[in-house]
Amino acid sequence: MKKKELYEQVTAYFMQAMPEAKTELHYGNNFQLLVAVMLSAQCTDRRVNMVTPRLFEDYPTAEAMAEATPEVLLDYIGSVSYPNSKAAHLVATAKMLQAEYQGEVPSTLEELTRLPGVGRKTANVVQSVAFQKAAMAVDTHVFRVSHRIGLVPARCTTPYAVERELVRNIPKELITRAHHWLILHGRYVCQARRPKCEQCGLRPYCERNLRKL
Predict the structure, then answer these.
(1) What pLDDT digit, counting tens, does each position of 104-157 carry?
(2) What are the residue ranges of CATH 1.10.1670.10 in the chain?
(3) Is the pTM of this model over 0.70?
(4) What b-and-e string marks burial along 37-73, b requiring 16 or more CB atoms within 10 Å of the CB?
(5) Which residues are catalytic?
(6) Which CATH architecture group holds 30-131?
(7) Which of 66, 140, 167, 179 has the highest Cβ tally under 10 A?
(8) Nearest to residue 87, comparing CAs of 51, 133, 130?
(9) What is the CATH number of domain 3-21+136-210?
């Protein structure tokens, strides 16, 4: 099967199976989205959603969080992964947003990645979800699923290489949804250790299954 045909068939499947795919993180504004995404690094969305209600109630904006200290925030986010560094990054990011962006979250990759604790993946999520930009964030789920179903070749060994390949082949208007398609498929079906192949509508295209034939 040619690459173009594979992408068309995978896209058609997801459009039918997950027409309304979106982030599972809970947030009320762009700043809260940024905070939630920063907290979700190497942590589950479920865990993040457990800690953010109290955090956002007391610190709903960059202005409010800029007045906090990492020690104070640690009491709110202590159950997420790497809480000490994340608490420090949240306060530093809030202070930079206040000082340089009037408390608003910027929309460009270059500006977002200047913020403490914000890497390319986090910046791409914010661009995609908050600003509807054609940005593809590659986490472990996207990386795994893309390889298993053959969307990217084995030579794409880094998240950036996978990102470039996906953006090159997915129609621009679908990239935002495709980001969520791949994440949710990896989270609930194409899991790392025990993929639920019997439930997978993409099984005919899966490199994992092709190797078994």
Answers:
(1) 999 999 999 999 999 999 999 999 999 999 999 999 999 999 999 999 999 999
(2) 3-21+136-210
(3) yes
(4) bbbbbebebeebbebbeebbeebebbeebbebebeeb
(5) 121, 139
(6) Orthogonal Bundle (1.10)
(7) 179
(8) 51
(9) 1.10.1670.10
